[in-house]
Recover the amino acids of this structure.
């Protein structure tokens, strides 16, 4: 073989080897990366063309896939629209599975979860079109609708739980959005809707019940401080606290007033029970100082602060500050300074009190079923923690009953039903603006529902929205819906 032919043969061999290596690299090494690229239209079409499983609340279908005549074969629709948007999330050809269960349970809904492996094999052998699993929610539609309607056009959130199991009965965040606008096959309209929602300063895509910028809890945090006092063994419901008209924050000349500047009771001393009943600022600030930051922080963490929770969407951990001065400690006693919470955390705290001191893990999906309606996944109620004793729980329950019967939560009263509750008015910013809180459970002697509601301040300054006047009536409506069949 002469030299030119030999050189040509080497070149051809090198080119063939390069092609073989490149093909092998693409097909095996880079396959997953290329398939998962957001702009891989073939994968997008393949995934979106699958029949995703429905999401159901009792007998109400809140998400489903409907067959179409176009290339994508199915379109994801949400018959209840905004009502369940922060529970379902949305499934979009352009933006994929986002928010809510569409994202956190994508494997089950799409049919790719390991629990459906054998079902996929059977479907392949029999030629049955693959279908995702159906998710059955714990949500009670009448409680969800009551929360939605009671919150109305106001910004805020409502969470309702079954205190005995942790099942989520309602989860509402306002403002909400229509997931149908993001799942349409009109991609230009989807892009316009996504851009509009993303630029909206009210942040309708944020689930305020479990994430986002956390809220100062205000006086609903007084339940945690009271729990710490009772658990210490040094205080009872009748213990006397210092509760003057104003309290000088330690190490400062700053005077902390009570709500609207008045006295809590006729004297400068007040019982722990009355402090909760009338939501006394000065006595709880004083009490926090007596307990110490370590005691209050430990009690908060036993209720779930700083801990991760999944429902199955992740819940942003609530926060009690790591370091506080004596003055800041006093402010945390009334749920101010840097104490920050989700409405879910407040509802979990109240549910623990309702459940005799045992806190259950909150969950949103009761079961998942394959296309043959066989259960492939089921959530069993399980304890999350035991933050307080049964004795402490009963003492707090009695205090919360007095809040509604003869205190700041009177607007949450339900005729013929004993209601336990706690109001909160949480200041934020520099102009004295305040969010309105209410948390409670009913019936107090046999709790069927525990809940928390926050109504965000309507303006950047104080506008009269106290927990007792704004949030407590919403709480009453939600509690009534939860005990409607009792």
């Amino acid at each position: 073989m002469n030299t030119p032919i030999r050189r040509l043969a080497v070149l051809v061999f090198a080119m063939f080897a390069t092609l073989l290596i490149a093909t092998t690299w693409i097909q095996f090494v880079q396959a997953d990366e290329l398939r998962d690229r957001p702009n891989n239209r073939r994968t997008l079409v393949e995934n979106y063309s699958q029949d995703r499983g429905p999401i159901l609340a009792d007998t109400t279908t809140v998400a489903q896939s409907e067959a179409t005549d176009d290339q994508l074969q199915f379109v994801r629709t949400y018959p209840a629209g905004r009502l369940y948007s922060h529970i379902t999330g949305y499934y979009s050809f352009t933006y994929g599975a986002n928010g809510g269960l569409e994202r956190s349970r994508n494997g089950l809904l799409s049919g790719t979860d390991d629990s459906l492996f054998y079902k996929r094999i059977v479907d392949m052998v029999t030629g049955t079109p693959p279908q995702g699993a159906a998710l059955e929610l714990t949500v009670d539609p009448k409680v969800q609708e009551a929360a939605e309607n009671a919150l109305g056009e106001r910004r805020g959130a409502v969470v309702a739980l079954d205190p005995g199991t942790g099942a989520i009965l309602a989860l509402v965040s306002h403002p909400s959005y229509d997931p149908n606008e993001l799942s349409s096959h009109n991609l230009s309209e989807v892009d316009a809707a996504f851009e509009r929602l993303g630029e909206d300063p009210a942040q309708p895509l944020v689930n305020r019940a479990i994430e986002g910028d956390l809220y100062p809890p205000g006086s609903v945090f007084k339940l945690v401080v009271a729990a710490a006092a009772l658990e210490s063994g040094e205080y009872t419901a009748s213990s006397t606290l210092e509760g003057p008209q104003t309290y000088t924050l330690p190490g400062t000349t700053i005077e902390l007033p009570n709500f609207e500047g008045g006295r809590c009771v006729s004297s400068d001393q007040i019982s722990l029970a009355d402090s909760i009943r009338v939501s006394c600022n000065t006595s709880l600030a004083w009490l926090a100082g007596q307990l110490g930051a370590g005691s209050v922080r430990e009690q908060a963490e036993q209720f779930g602060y700083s801990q991760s929770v999944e429902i199955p969407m992740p819940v942003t951990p609530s926060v009690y500050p790591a370091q506080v001065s004596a003055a800041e400690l006093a402010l945390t006693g009334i749920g101010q300074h840097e104490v920050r919470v989700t409405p879910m955390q407040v509802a979990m705290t109240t549910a623990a009190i309702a459940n005799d001191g045992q806190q259950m893990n909150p969950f949103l999906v009761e079961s998942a079923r394959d296309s043959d309606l066989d259960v492939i996944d089921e959530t069993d109620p399980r304890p999350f923690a035991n933050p307080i004793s049964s004795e402490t729980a009963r003492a707090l329950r009695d205090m919360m009953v007095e809040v509604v019967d003869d205190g700041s939560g009177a607007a949450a009263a339900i005729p013929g039903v004993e209601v336990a509750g706690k109001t909160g008015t949480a200041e934020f910013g520099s102009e004295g603006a305040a969010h309105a809180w209410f948390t409670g459970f009913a019936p107090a002697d046999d709790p069927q529902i525990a809940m928390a509601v926050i109504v965000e301040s309507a303006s950047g300054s104080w506008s009269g929205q106290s927990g007792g006047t704004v949030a407590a009536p919403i709480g009453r409506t939600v509690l009534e819906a939860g005990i409607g069949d009792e």
User: Anything to note?
Assistant: The first helix runs from residue 3 to 29. The chain is about 35% helix and 20% strand. The first strand starts at residue 55 and ends at 57. Residues 218-366+380-483 form a domain with the Beta-lactamase fold (CATH 3.40.710.10).
